[in-house]
Every structure is written in C-alpha cells, then in structure tokens.
Design goal:
single chain, 802 residues, alpha+beta, Penicillin G acylase, beta-roll domain, Glutamine Phosphoribosylpyrophosphate, subunit 1, domain 1, eleven-stranded mixed beta sheet, seven-stranded antiparallel beta sheet, 24 helices, 19% strand, metal-binding
C-alpha cells in the first residue's frame, strides 16, 4: 500500500477516534463557561431602586431591596438564573404541554400527564386562582414574573443545556405559570382517588373484611362496602382501564414536623422542626432564599417558579407543613343516558355533559385532540385513555375542592408569609383550600399552635373510600367543614405538637376527615425521643436524622418465632436477633430485613389479589402483624392444593430474599451493606438518560434510614431493578429557633444550581446526608467579608413610567 495512502488512512482514523472526545470536551468547556452572572452589575427594566443579590458560599441568595416588589423581581431573576429548566418543566407539566416539548422519546409519561392535566383543567383552575389574589399578592406574582422575564431578556450566557439539546426557547413567564405549581401540589398531596379505584376493584373478588385486613385501620374502623347501586355493574374493566391511564404524580406522603413550647426548650422559647418528604431528583424541588427589606424579611424554602416562601420564618413567626391525608376527593360513577349519550343521569333527570376540546401537541407526531367532559361532580377521568373513549354505560367523575374556581390557597400563603404573630397565621390559613395540611407554627412571643386548614367535604352518605353512585344524589357533598371545626389547638399542656402524617384527630372527633391514616411509626418515634425533657436546636436537628425503624422492632420478633432453613438463613437470622432496628447504611441487617419483608408481602397477598397485587405491593408491616397474630388464613397459597402455614410463608420469603441478595452481593451475609442498595436517587430526569452526561449529573449517595424512620428513606420495592433505592425523602430540612431566628437551620438535598457544571450543582449533598445545615442570616458586610458574591440589579430607564 502506498505510503501516502497509509498516512491518509491514519489521519482519517485519528480524526474518527479523536473528534468525538474533542467535541465532547469542547462542548463541556463551552457549557461550563455559560454560567449566570453572579457578581457585578446588571441593568433591569421595572426596578424602583437598586437591589443586591448576595450569594453566599453555597450559592444561597440573600436579597437586599428597598421594597418588596423589587425583592420579588430579584427572586424571579435568581430563580431563572439557577433553575430555569425546572421552572419550564413545572409549568409545562401543570399546563398539559410536556409532550409538546419532549414528545414520547422518554416513554409515554409526558403524553399521559398532558391528558390528565387537560382533563382536570389544571391551568384553567390556575387562571381562576389569579382572580382570587389581593392587590398586594398579585403585585408579588407580577413582579416575580417581571424578574424572570428580565433574566430571559438580558442574559448573556446560553440557555441551560436541556434547552440546547431540545433546541427550545422558553416563552415569557406569567403569574399563572407560578400558580400552576400550587395546583400540582394540591393534586399530588390529595390523590386518594387511586385508593378508591383500587378498593372498588378488589371488592369485586374479596370480602369487605378481607379488604379491611389489607388496610388495617388506625384507629379501628368498619369494613368498606360498595354501594348497592354499584354491585353487579361489572365495573372491573372500567376501573382497571382508568387506573392504568392515570399518570404517576409521585408519592403523596410524607413529612415530619414538631413544635416545642418554651417550657420544653433550653432557651425558654419555642422550636419548630419540619422536613417535607417528596420524590428525590437532581436538582431537588426546593431552593433556599432570603429576602430583606426595611419593613419585611423572610428566609427558608422556596420553589423555583413561585415567588413565595413555602416553608421557613419571617423574623416573627415560623411554620412547617405535613400532609393531613384527609379524604377530600371522591369518585362518582355517572350513568350515561341510554337514550342520549351526550347526557347523564341526575337525581331529577338527565343532564348534559359539559364538553370542551383540548389539542395536545406532541413533538414529532401529529396533534391529539382530547374531548374533555365534566359532570356536576367534576371532570370525567375515565376518558383519560385517549380520544375520549366512551365506556359502556358509565363514566367516572372526580370531585376535588382544589379544582374550584375560587381556590384562594395562594392568597393564604402570601398572608402566611406576612403574618405578624400566631393569630396572623390562623387568619391567613382561613383562606387555604387545598391540599389539607397540618401546619405547626410559633411566634416570638412564645405561642405555639397547630391547625389543619382546607375545605373538607361533608358527605350526605358514605365515607369516601370507594366510588359512589352519582345519579341518586344520596352521596353528594352538602358543604365543607367550617373553619372553627377543623383540627386545631394552641399551647398544648404536654409542651409539644408532633405530626408525621399520623392521625390528626382521635375517635372522639365529631367529623369524618379520613377513615384511614398512614403508619404512625415516625410520630411514635419522635414522641419517644422527645420524652419529657428540654431540647436545644442542636438536639432537634439531630432527632431529624434518627434512623430507628419501630416496625422492624415490632415485626421482627414475630418473624423470629418460626424456624428457618439451615445455611445462609441461619447466618442472617443470627444477625437479626441482635439488631436494634437502626437502618444504618454500613450494616447488613437493614438489607436483610427489608428484602425479607418485601418477599413476605408478596408471598402472603399476591395469590389472593392476582393482577391487582402490583398496585398493593409495598412494605406492609401492619398488615403482616395482623395476619401473623389474627388472620393466619392469608398465609395459605390459594393457588395450591396444600394448606400452607405462616411458618411456611416466612421461611419461603426469607429463602427467596437471600437468594436474590446472594446474586448481587455474594454469599457472605456479614459483608452485605444497606448502603450498597439504599442510595438516594439524586438524578437528573432528562440528562440522566443521555449518554456521557448521565454519569456526570448523577448525585446519588448512600443513605441511612428507611420507609418508617424519621430520617425518611422510602424505597419503591415493586421496582425489580432497584427495589431498595432511596427514591423519596426529606429534600429539605428546617429547624427554627424562636429565641434567635438567625440561629435557625436549613438544608436541601442537592445544591442551589440546576446546572450540572456549576459548583453549586451538588455541593450540599453530603451535608444533607450527614445532618449538616446552613444558617441564612447576616448583614451585607458580614456576608461579603465571608466571601459572598454581590450582583447589583440597577434600574434601567426604558422610557416608560415604571
């Protein structure tokens, strides 16, 4: 071969080998240089006076402004600088416009989400919410939108990498975009309609008593039964199709909060602790920020896209939220008029469906037209499969106060941000509609309170646990609980309020808020730790990191009563016998126990539930304790001719669990580690799926805790690929010291920036995992002396009277 040809071939091969990494490296360096400006001066239209955004060592903005309107403009600017992609996907998710952006390249989630949001009319509801705002609150939302748009108009850097990959330019921000988030949270934290669908399905083949076994009541309740009008209608297919068509909006649980009066603290003033639990992502939902004006200051957790602080303190009061898990949603089975399918049956005769057409744009595919129908009870969700398919004779409609046109929850949060004292908190929350939250609060004077505001329906009949007939009127809502009747108290004699999504009221409460409550283990553990002694802020922050599982302590003795196979099972049981239930990432016992529990739930319940088991499969220690102590018939496998005992089920489940763990971690049980599988899933939803970028954006880290620990480490055990990954937990923790609010503690799970190439992309991960925290305090001089960056936003004359 001629020498010249060999040289050309060598050059071509070298180019083919070197060009991709050179291109990738060039792209990396270019994107790394495209960081937002965090120091110097930027001229913005609309400002009344200069504003300083002082970012501390962790990128947390401390906004110093002469008035609130300018402060909200600056917060919008900072949010857009750091989290623009998060803001874009949030507003598109709530507006039913995700598929327009990503099509179906990441699966059908975007399209299913869009169908759901259009059917429920989430954006339309957010637009109506805008009309409920006072002039002051509306100013805040409008100023915030101006700040976001000022960034879009004045930025010098390229748009974040997600926009580059999709070749997308964001539209201007509007106040309605901010209000969409309130609607999304209302849906996610109130989504018990899924439970109604599941119960209705299993009641077709199980007795009411068996269904009660699956969901042991706390406190004990009566078995749930389908209404007589629905029995025999054979709704199985309709219920299954509807449940399958509903997108997964994420976990609806859980959070921790507690408040101590001055009598229970070392300072003599209240302490409030709060850590809300939501799905884990990178970046995390929350963004820390502080605002300081001559008349107003506030610090804590914001959500990019929203101008208000969701959690924190305003220098006078502090507050925290947990979800109440009340039943504020009902599914009504509507009967279609057999003579006219455009009408449905009502108590006094047929009524016309309300109809509208929604066009869903899908990137790379033809548009989809969705026919949305609504009844007097609400939107029809059984049309979600696409195209408005008409079921045979019936449809399902959803009632939910959070979709009402007079939802004033955003105004309530604005007033909460500005509350002067405990009474101001209570007055603000009168306007809260959905989702129902348990709010603990305290003021500097020492008053401590708890209240659970929302519109809670009063039902003419039924308890809300299953779909009900809509055509008779017997199950209609007759109104909502009055504000004075909602659960509330101040200055408890015990000196403490504790809630971790457990029952907020007892059996003597005269109204029905819920028939079932989440597992009370976390609340029990918090009460156990608090005891009767006094506590400091450091004590409370340490308690938030507690990883003891009370269900493990309760269930394990029941399991260890039975003999186990020889060999590996013997080694595993020997470790469990001396284990105290602490879910430590460097120990094997949590992994053994969780895997055993996972398999035991499947062994005991999968045969009776059949295809419906997938919807039920979760860690169910309370149900298993009930089976082992009182209902051993569940241990028999109905698919076999033999009669299996609970001892058989326990041994089989342990064998299956250990076999699976051995394949992944080897045969030496003592060397297994919970942290090898229990890793906080801090991954970028989009970039995590992109080659090369996926590993760069992954902030996942080993963590302690589990589903039932105060330091929440929820797993999705039905996920065959990663059943013990930590996918849900405390993305934000706050501890507020009413003796010195500057001594309050804050932390989020990832970092302030949404740019994977920023130094603030994941600089808080280890601090969050290990129980560290930040203080959001200091004047301008203190912050700058500590090395903070100062960005000054100055008014720009646009020739208008702004």
């Amino acid at each position: 071969m001629p020498r010249r040809l060999l040289i050309r071939i060598a050059i071509a091969v070298a180019i083919l080998i070197l060009l991709p990494p050179l291109f990738a490296g060039g792209l990396f360096l270019w994107m790394r240089a495209q960081q937002p400006q965090t120091a110097g001066n930027v001229a913005l239209p609309g400002l009344d006076a200069p504003v300083e955004i002082i970012r501390d060592a962790h990128g947390v903005p401390h906004i110093f402004a002469t008035n609130e309107r300018d402060a909200y403009r600056a917060l919008g600017y900072a949010h857009a600088q750091d989290r623009l992609w998060q803001m874009e996907t949030m507003r598109r998710a709530g507006s039913g416009r995700l598929a327009e952006l990503v099509g179906t390249r990441f699966g059908d989630f975007a399209l299913r989400n869009d169908r759901m949001m259009r059917t429920l009319g989430v954006r339309r509801s957010a637009e109506a919410m805008l009309g409920t705002l006072s002039a002051q609150a509306r100013d805040a939302f409008e100023a915030y939108a101006e700040g976001v748009n000022a960034y879009l108009d004045t930025r010098r850097e390229a748009l974040p990498i997600e926009f580059q990959l999709l070749r997308h330019t964001p539209e201007p921000w509007t106040p309605t975009d901010s209000l969409v988030w309130a609607k999304l949270m209302g849906l996610q934290l109130s989504a018990n309609y899924r439970d109604e669908l599941f119960r209705a399905r299993v009641l077709e083949k199980l007795t009411p008593q068996q269904v009660d076994d699956l969901f042991p009541p706390d406190p004990p309740g009566s078995p749930v039964t389908l209404a007589a009008e629905l029995r025999g209608l054979n709704l199985q297919q309709e219920l299954r199709r509807t449940l399958a068509a509903l997108p997964d909006l994420g976990f609806d649980t859980a959070s921790n909060e507690w408040a101590l009066t001055g009598a229970r603290t070392t300072t003599g003033k209240p302490i409030v602790a709060n850590d809300p639990h939501l799905g884990l992502d990178a970046p995390i939902l929350w963004y820390l920020a502080r605002i300081v004006t001559p008349q107003y200051s506030i610090a804590g957790a914001t959500v990019p896209g929203v101008p208000l602080h969701v959690l924190g303190h305003n220098g006078k009061v502090a507050w925290g939220f947990t979800t109440t898990h009340s039943d504020t949603q009902d599914l009504f089975v509507e009967k279609i008029d057999p003579q006219d399918p455009t009408r449905y049956a009502g108590p006094e005769g047929p009524l016309p469906f309300e109809n509208r057409a929604e066009t869903i744009r899908i990137d790379g595919q033809p548009d989809e037209t969705l026919t949305v129908r609504a009844t007097r009870h609400g939107p029809v969700i059984s049309d979600l499969e696409g195209g408005g398919a008409t079921p045979s004779g019936h449809v399902l409609a959803l009632s939910f106060p959070g979709l009402s046109d007079d939802d004033s929850s955003a105004e309530a949060l604005y007033r909460l941000n500005h509350a002067e004292n405990a009474e101001g908190v209570r007055e603000a929350l009168r306007l809260h509609v959905a989702p129902q939250q348990n709010v603990v609060y305290a003021d500097r004077a020492g008053e401590v309170g708890l209240i659970s505001p929302a519109r809670v329906p009063i039902r003419r009949k039924g308890d809300g646990r299953v779909p009900v007939p809509g055509w008779t009127g017997e199950y209609d809502w007759t109104g909502f609980l009055p504000y004075y009747a909602l659960p509330q108290a101040v200055n408890p004699p015990s000196g403490q309020f504790v809630n971790a999504n457990n029952a907020i009221v007892g059996a003597d409460y005269p109204y029905r808020i819920a028939t079932e409550w989440p597992d009370p283990s976390r609340a029990k553990r918090i009460v156990e730790m608090l005891g009767t002694s006094r506590h400091s802020v450091d004590d409370v922050a340490h308690q938030q990191m507690d990883s003891v599982s009370l269900p493990a302590r309760e269930l394990l003795p029941e399991l260890l009563k039975y003999p186990v196979p020889r060999g590996m099972a013997t080694d595993a049981v020997a470790l469990l016998k001396t284990w105290d239930g602490t879910m430590s990432r460097d120990r094997p016992e949590p992994l053994i126990f969780e895997a055993w529990l996972r398999e035991l739930v499947r062994t005991v319940f999968a045969d009776e539930l059949g295809p419906d088991f997938a919807s039920y499969w979760d860690l169910r220690p309370a149900a298993l304790v009930r089976v082992l102590r009182d209902k051993p018939q569940w241990c028999d496998d109905v698919a076999t001719s033999a009669t299996e005992t609970c001892g058989d089920a326990i041994a089989a489940a342990l064998t299956d669990a250990l076999t699976a763990l051995e394949k992944r971690h080897g045969s030496t049980v003592a060397r297994w580690r919970w942290g090898d599988e229990h890793r906080a899933a801090l991954k970028h939803r989009m970039l995590g799926a992109v080659p090369l970028l996926g590993g760069m954006t992954d902030l996942s880290i080993e963590t302690d805790g589990g589903f039932f620990t105060v330091n929440r480490g929820t797993t999705r055990i039905r996920d065959a690929a990663a059943p013990f990954a930590h996918v849900h937990g405390a993305g934000y923790r706050g501890v507020y010291d009413l003796a010195d609010l500057d001594n309050s503690r804050f932390v989020i799970a990832t970092g302030q920036s949404g740019n994977p190439l920023s130094r603030h992309w994941g600089d808080l991960v280890s601090m969050w995992r290990d129980g560290g925290s930040l203080r959001l305090s200091g004047d301008r001089g203190t912050l700058t002396t500590a090395g903070a960056e100062v960005l000054t936003l100055t008014p720009r004359n646009t020739g208008t009277n702004q």
